[in-house]
Amino acid sequence: MLAAAASAVLAQNGLKLMEKSTTMCASPIVTKDNVGAILERAMDAGGGLLRLTPAWVPRSFLHPGKRIKLAPTDWYALGVHRGGIDERWFASTTEAMNDNRADDEGLSYCVFEGRRFLLRDAVAEAGPRLVGQAMWDEYQRWPVYSKFFDNMGPIPHHMHQSAEFARLTNQEGKPESYYFPPQLNAADNHFDYTFMGLEPGTTKDDVRRCLENWNKGDNGIQDLSRAYRLKPGTGWLIPAGVLHAPGSLCTYEPQWGSDVFGMFQSLVEGREVPWDLLVKDVPKDKHQDLDFIISQLDWEKNVDPYFKEHNYLEPVVDRECSGDGYTDRWIDYGKIDGSQLFSAKELTIEPGAKCVLKDRGASGWITVQGGGRMGALQLQTPVMIRFGEEPWDEVFITHEAAAAGVEIENTGGEPLVGLRYFGPDVHDNMPTVGDYRNS
Predict the structure, then answer these.
(1) What's the CATH code of the domain at 325?
(2) DSSP E strands: which ranges in 131-266?
(3) Which domain holds residue 146?
(4) Could you tell me if 275 and 190 are in contact, meaning their C-beta atoms sit under 8 angstroms apart?
C-alpha cells in the first residue's frame, strides 16, 4: 500500500515537473559563432526591427510586487533560494550580478524563425548597424539598459557607485532614472514613498555612526534622509553616489549598463540586510574601511537642499514628433554631470491612428498598453506571461531602422502605448530638468 502510494505521488510529481518544464521552455539558442546569418535574415525580414524576449531577474533580498505580468505560478521559477522575480530587463546586454546567477541572467534575446540569439552577440556582430557608428566607435557595445523594477515594499537605502569607484572592481558606474507607468501602477503596494539623498546639514560622522551600528538592528540611516511621495506618470533622475530607497511603485528605469550597488541600510521591514550587500562592489581590502565606504557617496548631491528641483521629472510633449492621433512625450531626460547618458520617451497612438517613428538613435521598446503593428512586427500587451514564453511586446529598434523611419499603427480599440529608451548623446532637442514647468 505504502509503495503504491509512493509511486503514485512520484508519478504525479513527475507529471507536474514535466508540465512545468514544457510551459517554461523557450526557443533553441543560436551560439555566438553562428549569429551572423540569422541576424541578417532577421534584420531583412523586420526592416531593422528585432523581436526581443523577456529577461527576468530575481533578487534574493526583495519581495516581488506582482505587477509585471509574470504568471503567479512563476514568481519563483528559478527557485526559492534565488528569490522572487521582481525585475524584467529590456534590450539588455548587461549581466545581472546576482550570486548563483545563470550565465545569461539579465541578457536579452532576439527571437526569429523559432530560434533565439543574444542581443549582445548581435551587437558584437553588426554594431554600427544596430547602435550607430558613433556609439559603436565610443563604446563597442550597447552601453545602457532599462527594466521594470517591481516590489511589494521598499528596498534598502543604497547607492550605485560612480565610474571612478566602480573602476576599482573592474566594473562601470551606474546613474539611473525612474518613470512610474500608470498602466503598471493600479496598486501602490505597501510603501509608495522613496527616501532620496540626505537631509541638508547631515555630516559624514552621522553616516559613520549608522555603519558602526549595523549589527544593532535598524541602523537609522533613513533618519538622516527625506522621503518623497511617488506619483504615477512622473519620474526622477538618480545620479551615481546618491542614496535612495525606492518605494513600492512599479518603476521603469533607463540606466547605464552596470549592476553595481552598495546597501547602507541594515534592516528593512524587519528583514536583515547583510553587510556583504554594502561592500559587494568594494575592493576586498576596503570591506571594513568605513571612511572609504562613505567616500563613495557624492556628498554635494546627497545634501543638496534643492534635491527635488534638480532631479524631479514630469513628461514633456515633443511637439515635433507628435501629430494627429499620436503624442510622443519625454519621460526621462536631462544630463548627469553635464553628460547625456540615457533618456526615454512614451509614445501614445489613438485607436485607428498611425505614425512614422523616426529617431536619431537606436532604442529599446516595450509595449505597456494596447496592440497594433510596428513595421512588419505585431505588437500586443500581454495580460499574463509564463516564464519562458515569448510575447509580442518588446522590440529593439536598431539605429538603421530608427534613421529610416518605422510605421507604427494602432489596430485595437484602446490607446497603443510604448516606452522606449535611448543610449548616450543621441538627441539635440532633449529637455532639461525642470522644463515640464513651461510645457
Answers:
(1) 2.60.120.10
(2) 144-149, 158-159, 176-179, 193-196, 226-229, 235-238, 244-245, 251-252, 255-256, 262-263
(3) 56-105+140-313
(4) no
Among 418, 428, 343, 363, which residue's Cα sits nearest to residue 132? Answer: 363
User: Rounded to 5 degrees, what are φ and ψ at 244?
Assistant: -160, 145
What is d(CA 235, CA 251) in angstroms, rounded to the nearest whole number?
A: 9
Claim to verify: residue 154 and residue 266 sit in the same structural domain: yes
Whether residue 171 contacts residue 268, with contact meaning beta carbons closer than 8 Å, is answered with no
Can you give the pTM of this predicted structure?
A: 0.93
**CB 433: neighbour CB atoms within 10 A?**
16
Phi, psi of 124 (to 5 degrees): -65, -35
Residue 233 placed within a domain: yes
Q: With contact defined as beta carbons under 8 Å apart, do 242 and 159 qualify?
A: yes
3-state secondary structure at position 40 = helix
Query: Per the structure block, which three cell numbers stand in for 213?
Result: 551600528
Residue finishing a domain among 288, 313, 338: 313
pLDDT in tens, 272-313: 999 999 999 999 999 999 999 999 999 999 999 999 999 999
Q: What percent of the chain has pLDDT over 90?
A: 92
Residues 222 and 147 in one domain: yes
Pair 88, 201 in one domain = yes
Q: What is the 3-state secondary structure (H, E, C) of 395-435?
A: EEECHHHHHHCEEEEECCCCCEEEEEEECCCCCCCCCCCCH
Task: Name the E strands within 241-302.
Answer: 244-245, 251-252, 255-256, 262-263, 267-268, 271-272
**pLDDT at residue 15 is higher than 70:** no
pLDDT by residue (tens digit) across 390-408? Answer: 999 999 999 999 999 999 9
- Mean pLDDT of all residues belonging to the chain: 94
CA 145 to each of CA 157, 176, 192, 256, 344: distance values in angstroms, whole numbers, following the listed order: 22, 10, 24, 6, 11
Total structural domains in the chain?
A: 2
| Residue 98, pLDDT score | 85
In a domain, 130, yes or no: no
C-alpha cell, 271: 528583514
Q: What is the pLDDT of residue 25?
A: 55
**Tens digit of each residue's pLDDT (9 = 90 or more) over 181-203:** 999 999 999 999 999 999 999 99
Percent of the chain whose pLDDT exceeds 70: 94
Beta strands in 40-108 (DSSP E): 49-53, 55-59, 84-90
* Coil, strand or helix at 289: coil
**Which residue among 278, 313, 348 closes a domain?**
313
pLDDT in tens, 82-113: 999 999 999 999 999 988 888 999 999 999 99
- Joined grid coordinates for residue 87: 525585475
